[in-house]
Amino acid sequence: RLAFAGSCAGRYSGSSGAIYPLLRRLEKSGYVASVPGRNGVQVKREISLTTLGRRAAKKWITSFDPRETYQDDPIRTRFQYLRMLTVPEQEAWLEAAIACIDEQDVLLREEYATAPYQNEVDKAVMRSVLESNRVRRRWLRRAFEAIRT
């Protein structure tokens, strides 16, 4: 739960109200198994994929649906309604959106620098997010220039 809560992966909730009921459903369905474990002084549950869970995860990883490849982007979603704002408000919004993306880059780099899992796959994911953010910033700057003209 804490890993999700501290992650830059904004789509995933770190809320115990979201994670623990899901884990119980996955365990009840046979996708994960848990055993008592210890984390310092607290008793925790160690969770692992079952054979059924590993099979389902592999199926999910290897299947693609073009309708599901659209990148979720809350900034782009909000941008569609930018015309509801005055021009000065639009400019302020665009500046704030760019600053938010800049901050995400900083947080991502900090998270990766302290992560225990620094491997080539994770490096590729980080590079992909950073590159995507460069494209998003370029798009927002072009919108900013279009509004000014």
Describe this structure in words.
- With 149 residues, the chain is mainly α.
- The chain is built from six helices and two strands, in the order ααββαααα.
- The relative contact order is 0.09.
- The mean pLDDT is 86.
Write a brief structural summary.
The chain has 149 residues and is mostly helical. It is built from 6 helices and 2 strands. It has a two-stranded antiparallel ribbon with strand order 1-2.
Rg to the nearest angstrom? 20 Å
* SSE pattern, N- to C-terminal: HHEEHHHH
Placed side by side, the strands forming the largest sheet appear as 1-2
Number of helices: 6
Q: Which segments are poorly predicted (pLDDT under 50) over 5 or more consecutive residues?
A: none
Assembly state (oligomeric): single chain
Strand content: 5-15%
Which tags fit this structure?
2 strands, 149 residues, 62% helix, two-stranded antiparallel sheet, mainly alpha, single chain
Outline the fold blueprint.
Elements: H1 2-5, H2 16-28, E1 32-39, E2 42-49, H3 51-62, H4 74-79, H5 87-114, H6 120-148
Antiparallel strand pairs: 1-2
Helix pairs in contact: 5-6
